[in-house]
Amino acid sequence: MPAELAVGRTAGIAEPRLDGGRLFWLEQRPGERGRTTLMGRGGAGAAPVDLTPGTWNLRTRVHEYGGGAYAVAGDQVVFVDDGDRCLWQVTLTSDGDPATVAEPRRLTAPPDPERPRAFADGLIDRGRRRWIGVMEQDGLDRLVAVPLAGGEPELLHQPADFCGYAVLAPGGGHLAWVSWEQPFMPWERSQLWLAAIDAAGQLRQARPIAGSAAGDPQGISVFQPLWLDDGSLVVANDRSSWWNLERLADVSALGPDTLPRWQPLCPMEAEFATPQWVYGLRTTAWDGTRLLAAACRQGRWELGRLALDGGPWEPIPLPFSDLAALSAEAGRLVAVAAAPAIGQGLLELETASGTWRHTPTAPPPLAAEAMSLPEPLGFDGHGGAPTHAWYYPPRGGSHAEAPLLVKGHSGPTAMAGTGLNLAIQFWTSRGWGVVDVNYGGSTGFGRAYRERLDGQWGVVDVADCAAAARAVVAAGKADPTRVAFEGGSAGGFTVLAALCFTDVFTAGAVRYPVTDPEALLAVEHRFEARYTETLIGPWPGARALYEARSPLRHATRITAPVLFFHGLDDRVVPASQSEQMVDALRQRGQEAELHLIPGEGHGFRDSAVRTAVLEATEAFFRRQFHL
């Protein structure tokens, strides 16, 4: 399969939403240099409409990672354009066809270069004719309101540090949102806040009602508050060590000094949440009658129903194992869904009957029989702990002479799932086996699995990925002299650390990697400004650990050739990290190839760039392994 088909043509979809019988979603187009546009569709059989054609690019930059680029309610759509970072408004027609009746209109003034600001993760408060969402400015998040008629943001709430995921109660009498503060990430410690809204639209009696703050004895994370029609509130909460759903009934009767009584809904060893790197994430939905949710068990997602009285989990029989971004109304649900042999697309489900349809973003470039399907791989990882990975055999079957590519995901809290990954199929179609590792620190396996990496970044992840490769080789499925390792961002750090501190891998390729964790401390990226305190230790007390884990400081230990790719616009991990590492390797005569890419940041969006990166990686590995 050509690289262009693997990574260059397929559009990405995100944030589908149902509103008033209409379906909306974001579509990222690699062929348009990664431009993201808002798509809309009316009733059954209606054709999709591009609501922001031309040069509009719906993208937010809050916390650098963004997400939550648009909000819709009735005939109003508000979105963030990446060109000026402002809020824009579009009015839709009222005849069921989501076509615009006018050009987008700017709601907020262009930013002051001396005090840049970014908006994201909003909702439309229809009764008060305003947008409510997050504004990041001067090193803080703010919960603000902007009139739909346009104007300056009005401060509603000032959190200690970060906030988002605001939801408005039916009737508009209460607002709930999530807040967290450094040094913790939202999946480590976060709180669910609740406030009443008075007649003037101001928040009153704001207070936390679930989760944990920085100083609390137990770390608890909350995810995605959701209002039900009866005024009760549902949230995912991991105080049981699993992100399970809980319900707070009759929120309106909750006094300022009343202790909230949360009711667990179907406790089980499954995750009903995912790490909040970006806004716009949703794993639960209310269709007007039923509570629906996506649950992750052992690396696979499934869709099901939950009873509000705490009844059993009811899985809905569907062929999909990768589900995200749920939205529902009036007996209908939409989500982004994929399966091992089914590409990402929009899933639409009639929740009463169970009938569904799935619209992939592109037809599969391979026949189903030509695809390599993931096989669960269990092995003993760091310290003998049971660890999980997915193994993809090469086309034609596994054998002892096959080259092996080990993949380390980013985050490092991400999860290797089973949705169709055409980049993996690119390798298996060329005779490679691929092992996609859920090393300690990955989400989807409970809090204890995720916390294996605490203080052990560069140790547990390295040991687990090396153990996965050894397990495949020991099973007679790969050539131990042809084991490559690739990853991006935090996964790139794991690749370089593995090349430093193990002898398992014979070549590596990294994209925008962390090469020296100490250097991250000087980067002006507030979302992760203190993340390394969890992953390695507090600075400067843990200086020795930072130095011991740094691939840059131990570059002399790398004997395998390494390929680097880095975007020159990267503000999360500056390109200087790759440049310094390459210089250190070349000074001792070690082969290191560097590609610096103009116009790209932390994650490549342009189809031409993504294609070139994959082709260059294959050529590099083929040259090293004499294939």
**Structural class of the helices, strands and pairings?**
alpha+beta
Rg from Cα: 24 Å
Percentage of residues in strands? 25-35%
**Helicity level:** 10-25%
Number of helices: 10
Whole-number average pLDDT? Answer: 94
What is the strand tally? 36
Distance between the termini: 17 Å
- As residue ranges, the low-confidence spans are none
Biggest sheet descriptor: 8 strands, mixed
Write the layout of secondary structure elements.
Blueprint: H1 3-8, E1 12-19, E2 22-29, E3 35-41, E4 49-50, E5 70-73, E6 76-80, E7 87-91, E8 105-106, E9 117-125, E10 130-137, E11 140-147, E12 154-157, E13 162-168, E14 174-180, E15 191-197, E16 203-211, E17 222-227, E18 233-237, E19 244-248, E20 263-265, E21 284-286, E22 291-297, E23 300-306, E24 314-315, E25 322-329, E26 332-339, E27 342-350, E28 356-360, E29 375-380, E30 386-392, E31 404-408, H2 422-428, E32 433-438, H3 447-450, H4 460-474, E33 483-488, H5 490-501, E34 507-511, H6 517-520, H7 531-535, H8 543-549, E35 562-567, H9 576-587, E36 592-597, H10 607-625
Parallel strand pairs: 31-32, 31-33, 33-34, 34-35, 35-36
Antiparallel strand pairs: 1-2, 2-3, 3-4, 5-6, 6-7, 7-8, 9-10, 10-11, 11-12, 13-14, 14-15, 15-16, 17-18, 18-19, 19-20, 21-22, 22-23, 23-24, 25-26, 26-27, 27-28, 29-30, 30-32
Helix pairs in contact: 4-5
